């Protein structure tokens, strides 16, 4: 398992700022004719010089301080006019500097996609993408985010700009916020005997084996627009069915479940569980609950039922002891979590650049089921939502 384990007891989350200073200088005056076909008049081209410096405290990972501000080795920059990509350039930062050359001053939007190191090639922006709507369908892969280093993730930012009034020698100030394209779902501990306020346990569990943790109702890749979904092979929508066979995702996840979206625990006979170091953590490519027209977006379809867009957490348990009963339920039994809330109310979708932390999963026998994704029992889990990082790109002189 390659995902990062973060210690939330010592975690210090602060906003980080990546300052990119941009000097825009008029380098030449180029004039094109304007005809009846609405050909655009180009007054001038500009060069954009990006100077990068990093500020901010470190993120705590266990006892070791490790910076969490995203690394940016190179940037793909798209410069657009009314939704049409006019110029696209990929620039490597050299000593914190990148220069975008010959940018027409009629562009009115900038889109930046950041790559954390020289070997980063995903996502690949197709040269055939000529429109913003096509560009935003570029697929982000969860597997391309480094699960062992929180700094090595793709970042994304966009900003409306207006260069039209600038003349030779003028300078332009633009600020673009870039954030990680992915979010994280983290579980600090699993303790049935420590329910949060408001959760009433009717049949307390005193001991159990924790076999595995699964993340369901999510995707291994997703468009930059957060609504373009991948094909079936990149969709996690596992239902009930065979629990033990060689092709079962629940019986043999190592062979049959998506890597990076499960943990085999094999915990035996404990009353609670927590990872030895940090937390159980998973990268999520976050699906929006609304499209560009404000219409609702659905998640996957599981057991014939269309789901919401937040990921589900599933625990596989066995050898369960219930308080006041000498009986041991050999199982397996499953806990399915598909509803969350934080201090602001129900969490309807996840956002890039945020960590969604379950401090504890508590439950009773009444919340378990023979098959996963079947018994929800009005079960709602309390989340704490943490700004993972903000990256601000300031184009300034």
Description:
The chain has 397 residues and is mainly beta. It folds into two domains: 48-180, Immunoglobulin-like (Sandwich), CATH 2.60.40; 183-387. 2% of the residues lie in helices and 40% in strands. It has two helices and 30 strands. The protein has helices at 132-135, 253-256; strands spanning 17-28, 45-55, 59-61, 64-66, 74-81, 84-92, 97-104, 109-115, 139-141, 155-160, 174-180, 183-187, 205-216, 218-219, 221-223, 235-236, 262-270, 280-284, 301-302, 305-306, 312-322, 328-329, 333-337, 340-342, 345-346, 354-358, 368-369, 381-382, 384-387, 391-395. It has a six-stranded antiparallel β-sheet with strand order 6-5-8-10-11-30, with no helix packed on it. The radius of gyration is 24 Å and the shape is elongated.
Briefly summarize what is shown.
This protein is an all-beta fold. 2% of the residues lie in helices and 40% in strands.
| Average pLDDT | 77
N→C terminal distance: 45 Å
Spans of at least 5 consecutive residues whose pLDDT stays below 50 are 1-42, 50-67, 390-397
Question: How many DSSP-defined strands?
Answer: 30
Number of domains: 2
User: How many helices?
Assistant: 2
Biggest β-sheet: count, sense, barrel?
6 strands, antiparallel
- Percent of sequence in beta strands: 35-45%
Organism: Bacteroides reticulotermitis JCM 10512
Protein name: Major fimbrial subunit protein N-terminal domain-containing protein
């Amino acid at each position: 398992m390659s995902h990062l384990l973060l210690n939330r007891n010592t975690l210090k989350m602060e906003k980080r700022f990546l300052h990119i200073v941009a000097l825009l200088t008029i380098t030449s005056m180029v004039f094109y004719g304007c005809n009846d076909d609405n050909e655009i008049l180009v007054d001038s081209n500009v060069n954009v010089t990006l100077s990068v410096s990093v500020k901010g405290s470190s993120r705590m990972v266990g006892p070791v301080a490790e910076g969490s501000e995203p690394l940016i080795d190179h940037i793909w920059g798209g410069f657009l006019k009314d939704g049409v990509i006019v110029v696209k350039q990929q620039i490597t930062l050299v000593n914190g500097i990148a220069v975008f050359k010959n940018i027409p001053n009629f562009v009115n939007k900038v889109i930046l996609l950041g790559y954390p190191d020289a070997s980063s090639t995903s996502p690949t922006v197709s040269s055939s993408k000529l429109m913003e709507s096509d560009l935003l369908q570029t697929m982000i892969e969860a597997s391309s985010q480094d699960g062992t280093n929180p700094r090595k993730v793709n970042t994304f930012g966009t900003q409306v700009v207006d260069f039209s009034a600038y003349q030779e020698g003028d300078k332009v100030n633009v600020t673009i916020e870039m954030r990680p394209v992915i979010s994280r779902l983290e579980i600090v501990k699993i303790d049935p005997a420590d329910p949060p306020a408001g959760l009433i346990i009717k049949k307390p569990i005193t001991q159990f084996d924790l076999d595995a943790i699964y993340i369901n109702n999510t995707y291994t890749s997703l468009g930059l627009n957060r609504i373009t979904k991948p094909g079936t092979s990149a969709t996690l929508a596992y239902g009930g069915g065979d629990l033990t066979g060689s092709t079962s995702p629940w019986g043999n996840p190592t062979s049959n479940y998506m890597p990076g979206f499960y943990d085999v625990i094999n915990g035996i006979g404990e009353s609670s569980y927590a990872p030895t170091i940090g937390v159980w953590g998973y990268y999520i490519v976050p699906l929006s609950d609304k499209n560009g027209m404000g219409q609702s977006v659905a998640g996957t379809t599981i057991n014939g039922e269309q789901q919401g867009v937040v990921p589900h957490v599933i625990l596989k348990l066995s050898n369960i002891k219930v308080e006041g009963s000498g009986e041991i339920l050999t199982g397996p039994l499953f806990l399915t979590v598909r509803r969350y809330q934080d201090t602001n109310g129900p969490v309807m979708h996840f956002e890039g650049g945020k960590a969604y932390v379950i401090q504890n999963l508590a439950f009773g026998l009444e919340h378990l089921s023979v098959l996963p994704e079947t018994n929800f029992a009005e079960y709602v889990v309390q989340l704490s939502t943490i700004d993972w990082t903000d990256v601000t790109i300031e184009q300034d002189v």
